[in-house]
Amino acid sequence: MTVAREVELEGHIIDSGTMETAFSIIMDMGGEFDVETFDIGRSKTETSYARLTVTADDEATLDAILHELHQNGANPADPDDAELAPAPRDQVVPPGFYSTTNHPTDVRVDGEWIPVEDPEMDCAVVVERGAGTRARTAVLNAVEAGDMVVTGEAGIRVDPPERPRESEGAFGFMQGGVSSERPSESTIEQVADAIVETTREGGDVLAVCGPALIHSGAREDLARLVRAGYVDAISAGNGFAVHDIERDLYGTSLGVNTETLDHARKGHKHHIYTISEVIRAGGIEAAVEDGLVESGVMYECVVNDRPYVLAGSIRDDGPLPGTITDAVEAQNAIREQAHEADMVLMLSTLLHSVAVGNCLPSTTRVVCVDINPATVTQLLDRGSAQAVGMVTDIGTFVPILAEKVLGGAGADSGH
Amino acid sequence: MTVAREVELEGHIIDSGTMETAFSIIMDMGGEFDVETFDIGRSKTETSYARLTVTADDEATLDAILHELHQNGANPADPDDAELAPAPRDQVVPPGFYSTTNHPTDVRVDGEWIPVEDPEMDCAVVVERGAGTRARTAVLNAVEAGDMVVTGEAGIRVDPPERPRESEGAFGFMQGGVSSERPSESTIEQVADAIVETTREGGDVLAVCGPALIHSGAREDLARLVRAGYVDAISAGNGFAVHDIERDLYGTSLGVNTETLDHARKGHKHHIYTISEVIRAGGIEAAVEDGLVESGVMYECVVNDRPYVLAGSIRDDGPLPGTITDAVEAQNAIREQAHEADMVLMLSTLLHSVAVGNCLPSTTRVVCVDINPATVTQLLDRGSAQAVGMVTDIGTFVPILAEKVLGGAGADSGH
Amino acid sequence: MTVAREVELEGHIIDSGTMETAFSIIMDMGGEFDVETFDIGRSKTETSYARLTVTADDEATLDAILHELHQNGANPADPDDAELAPAPRDQVVPPGFYSTTNHPTDVRVDGEWIPVEDPEMDCAVVVERGAGTRARTAVLNAVEAGDMVVTGEAGIRVDPPERPRESEGAFGFMQGGVSSERPSESTIEQVADAIVETTREGGDVLAVCGPALIHSGAREDLARLVRAGYVDAISAGNGFAVHDIERDLYGTSLGVNTETLDHARKGHKHHIYTISEVIRAGGIEAAVEDGLVESGVMYECVVNDRPYVLAGSIRDDGPLPGTITDAVEAQNAIREQAHEADMVLMLSTLLHSVAVGNCLPSTTRVVCVDINPATVTQLLDRGSAQAVGMVTDIGTFVPILAEKVLGGAGADSGH
Amino acid sequence: MTVAREVELEGHIIDSGTMETAFSIIMDMGGEFDVETFDIGRSKTETSYARLTVTADDEATLDAILHELHQNGANPADPDDAELAPAPRDQVVPPGFYSTTNHPTDVRVDGEWIPVEDPEMDCAVVVERGAGTRARTAVLNAVEAGDMVVTGEAGIRVDPPERPRESEGAFGFMQGGVSSERPSESTIEQVADAIVETTREGGDVLAVCGPALIHSGAREDLARLVRAGYVDAISAGNGFAVHDIERDLYGTSLGVNTETLDHARKGHKHHIYTISEVIRAGGIEAAVEDGLVESGVMYECVVNDRPYVLAGSIRDDGPLPGTITDAVEAQNAIREQAHEADMVLMLSTLLHSVAVGNCLPSTTRVVCVDINPATVTQLLDRGSAQAVGMVTDIGTFVPILAEKVLGGAGADSGH
């Protein structure tokens, strides 16, 4: 005896790969399929529609197949409402809870499809019934006893974004694998175009920055981009801020003068002295206001009122006042930044980029830059449809980017 | 005014991605399509069939689209014969010559489809008419004045292998990107199974080896695999052979004792002494027969009559007698090895692996092992349908592989 | 007018490089020297002694030179007492505070040399006068108002450990750069010997573990080493513990079955389900006691009472109960582990390895294993005199290590 | 019974590390030493002098120690003449032949010290007695029957260059390990300064180039440096030249338009068409003269009469006419280039860089640029005293370098 259910696919399901994926899932997972209806888009502007009957030997297999099909955009032909169950206590979800993708998602409640707010991977979906029924994502540690959590597979519709075509604007430019053998300057030019376009449209650009950016001498150019309004927010760690300010106070980063390349003897202590001085001043804002700190990325953030999050980590010295040392609190601050960003630059930091990437919907534009191809690959694997990666040197990338963004536009552009 | 032509696709064209690829090519290259017929395979065992009319603004665009479609398995609905033109002189092809893929290919001559012998990338196709008409690939430097070379796009049929399903035996095991975060021992076990299976079926396993294999201490285990008949041929460079024999004569590889890890002072001269001694003996075979060399990979090749090719390169010391110093001659020797191999292990050498990979049809099983993820990615990008990559340490890979292959089977297995 | 001071060097100051370093520092920093006395050790067992007069143009330069000489083992010929100043408030050090190296260090208080407890990099030295005067390191955030903190350069004696000779036991084995072209199995054997030796002498082995260890299939073998008493403590993050337990509950790590290599569809949700189940059970210990978790590294830690620290980070899902989410608290827990360790294995994690490394004195034995050479280089650069690095695959390293450690000794060895 | 011999050291033997090295060698190799005389340079301008008696248990050990000491600048106190023996036949050296370092070396013939011409690693020294006695290096395959070859350890004096101080000009700038976390633009500026300085002094700059340079879009800027006379010679392979010319003929490199980033469909065939066109034209020079090729690096070489060597390899398509396919012949051409170069830029090619590096004396300035840190490390390990390495993106390095070199100086500078 076998069990069966019908699913539907709609859209550019062939050239987006959706159809291929659906067939593969069913076969790989031990199911069978019959194509009941197939209306192919006869030309490139028409969408296609398919209805399949999926068959499996038992309910468990069928459920697994349907779950996987959902997540890839094949939805039940005649959907039920989503099943809801209360969270038994804080941070504990009901058995069989639905764990989200980062794609736009709807859940069916009382016969109506409700969009899930702030799509994010690996969350629960909490439904709040009422005048206006809402559905929102909740990370495990934000689930509260009594929250109505979606369970099972029914009544959930996932809409993975179709892959952009090569010719579709700035983000069609890099398809396929990660390689350092790409035309570097031309690629940076396209990233610059995308930043300018995002800014013109009133969008926000978030830069996620690692300390290597400072060590490699790119600090002044990033500061210019912040000042000119092309980078609207900074997500970083204590180390980034320390070395940024060290450069201001001592002319060094990790003890190396980034202009003359001199190793200041005693210079490896500069970062500790820097932290101590900022604590003495009462924090980063106070240090800027007192005139202790007079340049750099953090300085421009304070002076131009660009929000920043400094998340603590176990390798920090200090940390600087204002660093959020609790990982859960820091994640919440990062989540807020991520939800506001329309474009994210991930610049030479794996830890912070993963943290930000975890909170992003698959529709946000992402650019990952690192000299280690494995880092770029790992970041691109997280499922953004609009992510591009570049294996290059952050110390040359940022200066060239700043020149291409600011060159024609002047310093007072942006917002 | 537009121009149009019909093409056909047949097979598992949806789940193999062929259909998606065809649609993408046409749209990316500025063409249009109409789906004239589409018979979908209604279940996973049935194949599908599609006939499309491809339209473009001019002949040049249409030609380019059709060329690209060919190479991906979409063939003209009503094929003409292939066009042939004589090579004007040695090493010079006629204008517009057809440059091959590494997929199985047929050319239509006098109304009949002739399979092209030894499919290999980036070659010309030479047709020899006669009692039995033949078509064969020829690298540029092997083209001779008067050879009848296929030109243009007509009368050529390419059949790219469908991607294997996950469940289809040993080579379904690794799909997707290259990562070092895969289960290492289990992956090696599957490679071992594939070697044993290939050997049992009478197939030939070719190992392409870099000197790192010797430096990392894997020499003895590779020698055991050669002796036991699981590695049937060796493709390497002068350096590999020198360090293999250095280990025999001096107990070192590049001057390091691979067992005790002692740096033999003076040891960095051992490889020069080794070359000199082998030259004195009259070559590798003579050195083995004289009893000068008593162990190692080259020793086992000589004693067990396994063919090897040592290709010279510009970084060689020496080189050892028997090294083929001319690159074109060496390629020809490598090509012969590659055509005889049923499975190829690429072990820690980019140069030799690319050289061998260039000569392989897309249907040969390939395993690429390197500690540098960029090397593995580059090798896998060369278009084999049956290639798997592993980012691991050759110095632990080969010992574990040898144990898994030889463990149950004993030393006298293989052939 | 110039200023001058005398410094002394003692020990194997030539072959340990101390003399060379001292000369280089003085010349690089713009000073001059006169060798007043030089008694060379006439044979390899005799130590040497040198007294130099260091001259500079001004006090600032001389101070900088003397500071640098101190840190490299050249101490003032007639030392003064260390200068002490009270910390003005919590987390704020007095101006010119002395920032520590990770070498054994003494400070001179009331004419007597007091060893600084728990040497650690980038700390302040706090002196507690009294019946028994003590000196201890304090990280910035542990400095309290009124603490007497060492400032300036006087009265501080640093004793950098001499580099071990090649022949001196297990840790003489790897000198020089980081390379993947080392004999892998033999190197692992020497690491195994060092672990067995450390354990026999009653020392503690701390393993710092990243999640790649689980993904790459090395979990069972690390669990065996914990069970057998060769790994005494674990330092890791939430991700490591989650995937370790995921493997127990679902047979997967990040959704991949580490034995069969099957990608469990839906498997990418397993880690979320795992966290939820452990929260439901009330924590890791409870999950083991309830019989929910029955194998793995965390299981062996609980059952065999091996202490572990799980430090939170901003990329965590969950996290699991027991994860220390505050970075400063987590550092304190890590610091305690680090101080108790006699040997540290850093296994495929940069973040946690740096955190542990920050707390280690330069005399602790350290083994760094990673497939990324840049990670190994970065870890070795942190100044341990007894650190060895290995660029290899953690998924093959741990199994071979376990076999070499446990092979002859049996499962009940260790403590 | 023990054997003993006296050796001398002279120069800045402490701060250059020579003394430390000598002590280490003797002790590591099981010898003993007595310091007979030690006159220390009392200030930084004075050199030191030491005479040691080295003792060992047997002649073999003593010989080994003395050999190693030689190579590191400790020479016998009362030297004998070098021993000479005739090569028994072509390519075969007499037993115990002396294998060279790449340091300046003298051999003692008839009581006189003769400098060895063209110092190069891993060669034999051939002495030609006569009116003016000469000594020259010979690679194994250049040794001819009857050549008088230096054997044993006596009568050879090696003078390893002292490491440059940090402050000594452009090449003092990068000491220590290889890292991507260095200030990129400032480092490139210093490389630019060194190129300008070398050119001003009439020296020759040799660029060793891999195809990644073309793929990454740096071709036009390298061409400018050739045209302006800052790059005097090119050492590359067939692939570099093919892609350089492909960019001219088709606007692509490996089929990618390096400006628009479009993947020309059919573009992966462009390199084959390029080769065929150049063969048809009769070679690169002819293709330039005929007006077929109108831009690029090879074009500038032809037009400005800069010598180039294209060395063949087994991965070549074609190759282009003029490529030297025999590895031994190609090495000889490379050797000639290397001997004429005063500064060498190794740009994104391991194979060709190793080949050139093998032929360089340790006194030539070398800059190694690659995005893979393992490549840079491997190249720097080859023993140049004046080598600097940079882990960066060749596609951004060359444009910035060109701007810094050509910015102020204009296009007609250089020679």
Automatic annotation (TrEMBL), chains A, B, C, D:
Pfam families named among the record's database cross-references: ArgZ-like_C_1st, ArgZ-like_C_2nd, Saccharop_dh_N
Catalytic activity: L-ornithine = L-proline + NH4(+)
Region entry Disordered, spans: 157-185
Principal EC category: lyase
GO terms of molecular function: nucleotide binding; ornithine cyclodeaminase activity
Keywords, ordered alphabetically: Lyase, NAD, Nucleotide-binding
InterPro entries: ArgZ/ArgE-like (IPR005239), ArgZ/ArgE-like_C_1st (IPR048964), ArgZ/ArgE-like_C_2nd (IPR048963), LOR/SDH_bifunc_enz_cons_dom (IPR007545)
Chain ranges of the Arginine dihydrolase ArgZ/ArgE-like C-terminal first subdomain domain: 104-188
Residue ranges of every copy of the Arginine dihydrolase ArgZ/ArgE-like C-terminal second subdomain domain listed in the record: 190-401
Highest taxon above the source species: Archaea
Known cofactor(s): NAD(+)
Occurrences of domain LOR/SDH bifunctional enzyme conserved (ranges): 5-103
Nucleotide-binding recorded as keyword: yes
Family: Belongs to the AgrE/ArgZ ornithine cyclodeaminase family.
Protein purpose: Catalyzes the conversion of ornithine to proline, with the release of ammonia.
Name of this protein: Ornithine cyclodeaminase
Organism: Haloglomus irregulare
